Sequence to fold (187 residues):
Amino acid sequence: MASTKTTVSAKDARILDMVFNPEGTMLPDKETETMLNAEPTVIEAELLKKVKALEAEGVLMAEKDDISGAITKFTEVIEVCPTYASGYNNRAQAYRIQENDEAALKDLDKAIENGHGQIDILKQAYTQRGIIKKLKGDKDGAQVDFERGARYGNPVAKAVAVQDNPISQLCGAMVMEMLNKEMNGPK
Fold:
């Protein structure tokens, strides 16, 4: 009797890992490994001090519901240091509050582009971008971003990636069916 060998794609292996190991981190893909292993952009100490101070001012403005002022401040951060990923990430959040999704998406792309080696930036940027893509109806693009956000440790992204993945849904349905049969007996 010939045996059939089933292989699972790398993507499916990562999804199955999320389903059956919900407390663990997702298996990284090549892009995630590259981003994690990349050295963060080095910003000179004085410049970093300046952009962090400007960024803190922008965050305070946002907390006081001065979203336009916050955007202006985050724009100043980006003008002073165009490679400072956190500035793009924060401005994207402010744009999202103003429901300017196109501007937010552009900033999230820049945050990801400049965020190599910065896990906190990447997990937030991918998750935010996934949310916007999902709202715009780009289910596949959203799924990819949620999976990447999950790989960097964002719990919201992980929950959504598992919940929205068709393989995960199928596995969940199969587990529920087996549990139901176990509890209620065969019919």
Remarks:
- The chain is about 75% helix and 0% strand.
- The chain has a mean pLDDT of 81.
